């Protein structure tokens, strides 16, 4: 069965950039067969970060999340490919990086939670919201 071609957004978080994993993360998506449609390094303002993570506004970790994601440059990557949202999420792995499967990005590269190396949109609606906030 074929699944539709769609777009998703992957963001290499400040810890991933600081630790030098931009190339490694990009390479995994390229090897999988995704096309990179857009790519940009951005340092989010606090206001941008609050909008980006708007769905988490009521969570106890919201302030920590906002201050972390705006603590340094991130790399936003718009990917195109088959079933891109779900496929990229599978490649990224579980949110709690210490629990994520080996072979996933978080499983191989991170032990963090807020600092879990990478973010990927969880739906097409999130993709549209997040890319708009980041100015893609
Ligand atoms: P991300 O995929 O960017 O989506 C929301 C982020 O919130 C998630 O990755 C984690 O980095 C972060 N997060 C989720 N739960 C917690 C928590 N309990 N404490 C701190 N950060 C969290």
Question: How would you summarize this macromolecular structure in one to three sentences?
Answer:
This protein is α+β, with helices and mostly antiparallel strands and 136 residues long. It has helices at residues 14-18, 22-32, 46-52, 62-69, 84-92, 105-109, 124-134, and strands at residues 5-12, 35-42, 74-82, 118-120. It has a four-stranded antiparallel sheet, sandwiched between helices.
What does this structure look like?
The chain is of the alpha+beta class and 136 residues long. The chain has a single domain (5-134), classed as Alpha-Beta Plaits (2-Layer Sandwich), CATH 3.30.70. It is 41% helix and 21% strand. The chain has 7 helices and 4 strands, in the order βααβααβααβα. It has helices at residues 14-18, 22-32, 46-52, 62-69, 84-92, 105-109, 124-134, and strands at 5-12, 35-42, 74-82, 118-120. The chain has a 4-stranded antiparallel beta sheet with strand order 2-3-1-4, sandwiched between helices. α3 (46-52) runs antiparallel to α7 (124-134). The longest helix has 11 residues, at 22-32. The radius of gyration is 14 Å and the shape is globular. The mean pLDDT is 97. The structure holds adenosine-3',5'-cyclic-monophosphate (CMP). Adenosine-3',5'-cyclic-monophosphate binds at residues 56, 61, 64-65, 95, 113-114, 116, 119.
What is the distance, rounded to the nearest whole angstrom, between the alpha carbons of the first and last residues? 31 Å
| Average pLDDT, all residues | 97
- Global shape: globular
* Number of helices, counting only DSSP H or I runs of 4 residues or more: 7
* Main beta sheet strand tally, sense and closure: 4 strands, antiparallel
CATH fold description? Alpha-Beta Plaits
Order of helices and strands: EHHEHHEHHEH
Helix content: 40-55%
Write down how many β-strands occur, each being a DSSP E stretch of 2 or more residues.
4
CATH class: Alpha Beta
CATH superfamily: Nucleoside diphosphate kinase-like domain
Q: Strand order within the widest sheet?
A: 2-3-1-4
Q: Give me the secondary-structure category.
A: alpha+beta
Which residues sit in consecutive blocks of at least 5 with pLDDT less than 50?
A: none
Beta-sheet strand percentage? 15-25%
**Name of the CATH architecture:** 2-Layer Sandwich
What ligands are attached or bound here? adenosine-3',5'-cyclic-monophosphate
Domain count? 1
Radius of gyration: 14 Å
